[in-house]
Queue: 2 jobs
Job 1
Amino acid sequence: MNSSTVTLTSHDGQAFGAYLSLPPTGTGPGLVLIQEIWGVNAHIRAVADQYAMDGYVVMAPDVFWRQGAGVDLKYDAADTQEAYRLMRNLDGPNAAADLVTTAQALRQRPERTGKVGALGFCMGGRLAFQLAASGAIDAAVCYYGGGIQNQLDLAPSIQVPLLFHYGERDAHIPPPAVDAVRAAFASHANAQVHVYADADHGFNCWGRPAYHQRAAALARGRTLAWLSEQLD
């Protein structure tokens, strides 16, 4: 893979890192990849490389850098406890601003052609939703974004296409929460909500017990087809 860590400058003049993965052709549409609570770890870097192999210029910013740069956690009990601590202490407004900075930086990359989208998982799914509301991207994909149902006041301000993936067995995001999201975007020009049978929260992550191969493959296929239309 043609990948590297690049340095971006935040809105308040500080430096933070992002994992950049380039497609084999060297150019393509842009994709901001937003981490789960375990940081830009081996799994997220691999997902970035996956989408780069599909032709996207992928940038995965270090969301937790203001608490400590380079968070790269495993899925064991100790690291998961640390991951939840980092999530609880996340500075929401600054994190949102850092994602806008990332999208802007991606638009300025010489390798980026076409539009710029966002793809986020869990906490990152919620942040992708917020990034869509900012107007800084052209489309967003939200995998089991926890808390989106509590931020539906943003829905009227979102004009870009949205794709939502949820697991049927996700106790963190129960059916009424998914129904609330679906209802909020019922009249949206281009929003899709998919629920995957027998899948739990985190079903896309092959490093976790919740991994569900069939749901992950189906969601990825839908995501690629959808991105090919929205970021053309």
Job 2
Amino acid sequence: MTASARSQTMDGPGRALVDGEFAFTEEDFRRIAAMLHGETGIVVTAGKATLVYSRLAKRLRTLGLASFKAYCALVASDDGLDERQAMFAALTTNVTRFFREPHHFDHLKTRVLPPLIDAARRGGRVRIWSAACSSGQEPYSAAMTILSLAPDAASLDIKILATDIDPNMVADGRVGAYPRNLLDAVPPDMRNRWFSPSADGGMQIADEVKALVSFRELNLIGQWPMQGTFDAIFCRNVVIYFGEDTQARIWSRFAPLLALGGVLYIGHSERVSGPAVDQFAPDGVTTYRKVGGGKR
């Protein structure tokens, strides 16, 4: 009888959750879910056991481990920091694309940026934060939107902060190279102006676009080092993976970082909740204006 078959007969924490190459018990899942929640705030239920197994089985094969019990012991150990980061990266959803939810970028272009750019030309500053930026398509979409209105943006005090918990995504964003098929949603004029073929057959975003964006690693449930306020924050399709209390804390932490009148863009399945709800007023589809408790 194989280890997998033997584990199928167990009850309680030793009961197998997935019938596969590696023994994967309820206790293994509980330990992985607890580490993921503790480090990232992401809640993963037993209904996602197969997804967790499939994503991490690749790591077990790479490491030459025979079971999830051994894998859990590794990532929980002092020597497992790098693999723990790899585990979080494997379990974090990184679905993104250029100009995802295009109504947000239409709103940014027509209702948010014009007065900000005018102010920047008079010596003011403009700051946008792409929280959970994945591999960079969101902040680069914002940068191209800015350049469509202000080709001279590089000479103005306009900056986009792009952050993500996954160092691999941050590194990819800094490079700014993408397969051609990922540019389908980029308007043709922007695609022709701001991308060029790369040696590997993909497309490289222009230095003028990259110059507006600074990429940093940041855990949304960890420390936020930012001091000044932002004129717009994109945090879309992220907090749906958090518990309700964590969601409310995230909205409350965004509120003081948005300038009065600043805009928060969130995902189509998300709603601002908790104590900060009175500081935001709807200003479009999944778009909110900061209306209280801040300064311009």
